[in-house]
Amino acid sequence: MKLRYNHLGYLPEAPKRILVTDGDINTFSILNSENQVVFTGPLVENGLWDHTGEWVRVGDFSSLKTPGMYRISVSDDLKSDAFPIGRDAYAKQLLATIKGFYFQRSGVELTEERAGMWARPAAHLDEAIPFHASMEREGLWNAHGGWYDAGDYGKYVVNAGVSVATLMHTFEFYPEIVKSSPLLEEIRFELDWFLRMQDTDGGVFFKVSPDRWDTFVAPIETVYPRRILGKSTASSLNFAGALAQAHRVFKSANAGLARDEVFANLCLDCSKKAYEWALQNPNIEYPHNTEGSGLYNDVHFEDEFFWAEAELWRETHDNTIGARLQKRAETQSTLWDINWQNTQNLGWISLAMQNRDVSLQAKARENLENATDAIAAGLENCPYRVPITHFEWGSNGVVANQALTASVVLTWNENPRFATILCEALDYLYGRNAVNMSFVTGSALSAPKFPHHRLSGGDKVEEPVPGLLVGGVNEDRQDDLSKTPRGLTYPEENSKPGTAYYDHVKAYASNEIAINWNAPLVFALAALLNQWSIKN
Length: 536
Ligand code: 9MR
Fold this sequence. Notes:
With 536 residues, the chain is of the alpha+beta class. It has 15 helices and 13 strands. The protein has a domain at 88-434 and 514-531: Glycosyltransferase.
């Protein structure tokens, strides 16, 4: 019998559901810090989860709202650790996950004042790097700055675009929640790098990467030369979408001291040029080399065009772009999430939040509601209450993005089923999963200790860099030794479709961190704090 719950604790007003697997006990209790029973409720059978073969029961103690420290008790042998009901843990996680992006900064010193024991000197300045041989281009390029993508030391515009757009949405949706955080400063750091990734003809380079995969050493100790690669349709459109949104964000009154109209206008100009380049070059693929970097191998650009046009149309009111957008809106689907391959929801979210064209707004809202409805049904129909049928690479990012989709819809439709998605997605990420892990480094005792993260593995600090969400359960296990010589063997208990996660530094398909998984987590944490702590 196993108990699964959110190791971070619960917001006072939020739903609170726990899972008990493979037991026949019908009730559970909540104990306060004096060990007194303050709540007793039923454990209701919820079916067999085929991803692990566990019989699942659900307990609900949502009505317990008094802040304090508590434990869950199922039997004498099965009790949780102490956890809080309160707001603090979530407010801290929001700051920690934003700080995670600071830790991912490349090319600059991380000071002891801000980075503590994870301070490090500037490295990978990337101020004058050569072009990759595939580009047949002489000269050097300044590609300084930006975040490292993930556990590697590469920087990829396509994945950075969806990540920074998601963070900008966090600011746009929840300005009150993030106003005293460094979110906008962090976004600006990335966007300054974006501007450097644009070629003089408007096209945008795809990535900066080392010649070979770096070993697990600190940035200052790596040996492989770094080069710039691209340009491509996807990177140019990602850039265009993100920078048009940046125009709105950096001229917004809510931006406070970060407000910068000159920068905002520059972003819009560069966005337009990148979009024009993509119109002239509508089918230029990603660079096909994998010697020292990932592919981000997307070949369908309609969704990127849709996103870029939605943002550009909002910022410019250009009728020609508007007409193309209307046409594309007829065929674009609406998904459960946003990812580097499928960016259409970024277009729909932007359209849902404008009122210049009310029929487009209505369509966008209806589409996002339908997607959220399907996520809710997925959650309700899953014995384990997680709306996932196939755990893919970065499944934690998928879960965080489902929370994002639901949160977006909650801004105009307060359906409690949608609020439940937001809340239970975070329950899953912070411990209520089949491997009993809180998946964000530094977030709890159960958090990953050995992420596939060069910054963590290459420093002298025992604790991994905090505030970073690992990819999580991945039933495809591309890092299994039977599939690749670089791989490892997952323990038997970590081999089921719902448990295929391994806290091991070589487990790159389940234990790597990445900016595109952290960004929707930041969004979801801000959404959660907004949903239950400000309004109520
Ligand atoms: O997140 C990406 C995942 O969706 C892909 O299946 C996987 C294999 O192509 O690549 C992941 O992205 C990695 C990127 O290629 C290189 N940096 C690390 C990223 C996270 O694992």
